[in-house]
Structures are given as C-alpha cells and as structure tokens.
Amino acid sequence: MINWKILLFAVVLIPSMACSQEQVLDKVAAVVNNSIVLDSDVNRIMKSIQNQAQQLNQSLPDEKELRFKIIDKLVIDTLFVQKTEQLGLRVNDFQLEQVIQKIAKQHQISVDQLYKAVADQGLNYSDYREQIRHDVLLMLLRNREILRGITMFPEEVDGLAEQLKLQRRSNLELNLSSAMFPLPADLTFEKLNEQKNIANQFIQKVKEGFNFHQVKIPYFSGCRVIPTKEMGWRGVQELPFLFISDLLQSHKGSLIGPIQSSIGWHVLQVNDMRGDRQKHLVTELNARHIILKSSSDLSAQRAKEKIFWASKAIKSGTSFNHVSQLLFKDVGAAYQGGDLGWMSLYRFDPEFYVALQKLKKGQISTPVHSSLGWHIMYIIDTHIVDRTDEFYKNEAYHLLLNRKFSVALEEWIEDERAAAYIQILP
C-alpha cells in the first residue's frame, strides 16, 4: 500500500510509462482515505492462498468472493496502519530486534537459524523484519484502543472457571455407596420434610465418623440400620442427571445429598475416584542464583571460567554466600545475584528448566549459559503446590478476554469504517 498522491505524482512525471503499450500500470483495487490498495497486492495474496489451499487439499470460495474478502482485509489493515500513524505509534529497531530474539527463543533456535527458516519459505530478511514490525504496531494499537476499554468482572471469571472444571471432569469415574429414604404412599408435605430430616441426620452421623453402612436413626422404621448399597464404579454419564452436578464438584470422601427424586431422598458417598485429571500440581523452587555477564571488563570466556570455579567451590563445601561475595569483589558490575524466592519451575527459561528439574534441596545446578550470561543456582528448598484454581481462573480470564476483545474489535472496525472514506473499485 502506498500513498495515492505519490503514485499520481510518479505517473505525471513519467507520461511515457503511462502511455506505453508495453508497460502495464498497477491497478488500484480500493481507496482508503489518502491511501490505496493495489491490485497487485490482492493478486499476490490470492495466489498465495490458492497455492496453500492446493497443497493442503482444501476448498476455497470462488475467485470473486475470495477477492472481495482479501480486499476487505487489506482495507482493514490500511485503517489500522493509518491509526498507528495518527497516534504516533512507533517500533524502533531495538524493540524490533528484541521481538525477533523472543520469537527465535520460543522456537528454541538462534536468530540466524530463524532467518534461514524464513528464507527457506521464500521471504527475505528485510521483508520479514518489516512484517514483524507491522504486526507489533497492530498489537500496540489494539492494546491502546481496544483492550483498555474492556472490563473484566471477578464474578464472571470465577463462574466460567467453575464451568471449565466441570467440563474437564466428564471422563470421571466414581466408586459410590448410596442410601435411600423412601417416600410413603400417603405422602404429605410434613412427611416429605420428615424423611429429609432423617436423611440429614444420617449425613451428620457419617460426618461424625459412623460407618456409612451401619448408621441407625432412632425413629426410622424402629431404629433399624439405614438400608444402603454399594454402587461400585460408575462413569459420570451413567448416573441419573439429578446427581451429576453435585458429583462433578465432589472429591474422595464427599457426601452428596439429600437429593430428592420421585421415590425418595438419596444420599451418596464418594469412596474413590479415577480418571480425574483436574488437579494441576506445580513444582516450586526456593533458590539463590549468580549471574556473570560478559562486558568490556569481563570476557565471555573469563565469565565462563569463573562461574565453573564458583560451582566447583560450592560443591566442595564453600558456602554459597561466601562464593558470591568473592565473585562480587572480583568482577564488580558483571555480577548479579541474590534470592529468587519461591518460583514455579515452569517460569524458568528452557535452559534452566532442564538443569533444575532434577535438583533437590541443597543441590547446585550445573553452569548454564543464556543470553544474559553464565548462571548457577542453589536450591534452598522445593515443594509441590496445587495450582488448580489458579490454572482454571487464568484460562477463564483469557477465554473471556478473547470473547470480549472479538466483539470490541468488530465494533472498533465498524466505527473506523464509518468515519473513513472507502471506495472499492471494479
């Protein structure tokens, strides 16, 4: 996309090109305020989509509809670009390099390997960089113009998190015991409540430690033992619908009920569970670390030698604190370190994850090299934490955010369309 005034200016300056039978000028597919969408861009994208669809054996709409969709997408992209210029948003070369390094790191390859992979797909270095710059600009615009207008309420996040928990447990199997308190033939409201009260007394006695199958209630059929039965292992989908909601929220040892059916009040005991993948257990480390960063005063080789010396000294019995003090005096500003506190193992970079996952309390990692320098870590302690609630709340938050973002984005696009001059040319 280029400014239409510049294009017209070029045509006026070189009339021979405009009149020559051998030279074909690029057509304009659409005008968006003071910018244009070129027909060559539309055709290039269409050809790329058609080639990909052919390789994947996928069907496409007819060319007329596909062309319309491509032009519409390019019009929206043009509106985005114009808005970033209007707001003065910029991505400088340093910021761009940081993003590219992050992309390479996510794919666990070097930046040079990333550029080689890009070249293998037929793109050149400059085009790839500018595409990334364009994508980052659009992300900045969306964050500024759209995300800041979205409100997330804690109660809706909590509600969706609970729904997600229930959905994940659809393959759950439970080992159940049941007790049933039948309703008399001459049922009245008073007798219905009387049976419910007996069921509640039964639950209370089980909670107090009585065996589920040996509970007696004084005024239940002459103080007989409450009739119970073993239901064995049952899948959630095999159980009556009126039990499912409560059972999906249960755990081993839960008492469910009393639940009313057409024949009486029911109480269930969850003896055991299997197929439950709900829990998300996370290993956390409490660690101290040392980083040596290479600089004009400390070469990369010297940093490596010193970190290996530090690792060996600590393993030989020298205290971590003493080694840290010696390194700080020796290399000064090249040294960084201290207590990290409790951190999830998954928050560490891949280089550290491999080195740390097998370490136990009191052990030190092998030296690890990263983009920051040379590292060692000393494990003060480890523990396993149940982060299930946090996991589901985080998932629910992002699902809700994406839903609201999609709606807000459509509204923003429609507002920008309404305020812009847009003409689609035949």
From TrEMBL:
<keyword id="KW-0677">Repeat</keyword>
<dbReference type="Pfam" id="PF09312">
    <property type="entry name" value="SurA_N"/>
</dbReference>
<keyword id="KW-0574">Periplasm</keyword>
<protein>
    <recommendedName>
        <fullName>Chaperone SurA</fullName>
        <ecNumber>5.2.1.8</ecNumber>
    </recommendedName>
</protein>
<dbReference type="InterPro" id="IPR023034">
    <property type="entry name" value="PPIase_SurA"/>
</dbReference>
<dbReference type="GO" id="GO:0003755">
    <property type="term" value="F:peptidyl-prolyl cis-trans isomerase activity"/>
</dbReference>
<dbReference type="GO" id="GO:0006457">
    <property type="term" value="P:protein folding"/>
</dbReference>
<dbReference type="InterPro" id="IPR050280">
    <property type="entry name" value="OMP_Chaperone_SurA"/>
</dbReference>
<dbReference type="InterPro" id="IPR027304">
    <property type="entry name" value="Trigger_fact/SurA_dom_sf"/>
</dbReference>
<dbReference type="GO" id="GO:0050821">
    <property type="term" value="P:protein stabilization"/>
</dbReference>
<dbReference type="GO" id="GO:0030288">
    <property type="term" value="C:outer membrane-bounded periplasmic space"/>
</dbReference>
<comment type="function">
    <text>Chaperone involved in the correct folding and assembly of outer membrane proteins. Recognizes specific patterns of aromatic residues and the orientation of their side chains, which are found more frequently in integral outer membrane proteins. May act in both early periplasmic and late outer membrane-associated steps of protein maturation.</text>
</comment>
<dbReference type="GO" id="GO:0042277">
    <property type="term" value="F:peptide binding"/>
</dbReference>
<feature type="domain" description="PpiC">
    <location>
        <begin position="171"/>
        <end position="272"/>
    </location>
</feature>
<keyword id="KW-0413">Isomerase</keyword>
<dbReference type="Pfam" id="PF00639">
    <property type="entry name" value="Rotamase"/>
</dbReference>
<dbReference type="GO" id="GO:0043165">
    <property type="term" value="P:Gram-negative-bacterium-type cell outer membrane assembly"/>
</dbReference>
<dbReference type="InterPro" id="IPR015391">
    <property type="entry name" value="SurA_N"/>
</dbReference>
<dbReference type="GO" id="GO:0051082">
    <property type="term" value="F:unfolded protein binding"/>
</dbReference>
<keyword id="KW-0697">Rotamase</keyword>
<dbReference type="InterPro" id="IPR000297">
    <property type="entry name" value="PPIase_PpiC"/>
</dbReference>
<dbReference type="InterPro" id="IPR046357">
    <property type="entry name" value="PPIase_dom_sf"/>
</dbReference>
<keyword id="KW-0143">Chaperone</keyword>
<keyword id="KW-0732">Signal</keyword>
<feature type="signal peptide">
    <location>
        <begin position="1"/>
        <end position="20"/>
    </location>
</feature>
<feature type="domain" description="PpiC">
    <location>
        <begin position="282"/>
        <end position="381"/>
    </location>
</feature>
